[in-house]
Design goal:
With about 70 residues, the protein is mainly α. It has 3 helices and no strands.
Amino acid sequence: MIHWLSTGFSTYVLHVEHGNGYQFWSGFGGRSFGLAIVLGMWHRFNCHHPWCFRTVRHGKRFCARHEG
């Protein structure tokens, strides 16, 4: 009886834990989502002048060097 309860409970917990999309978000999906956020922040706070990697001021598209 105890073996049946422990096996049934562990199967239920594993089934719920590994439900819809669990393996995707714990593996490739979580890493790709994190990479998308980092690249989005880089695009937002980076100077839009080609080959300039300086950060921009609040609400501006270009750094202080390329503003004028």
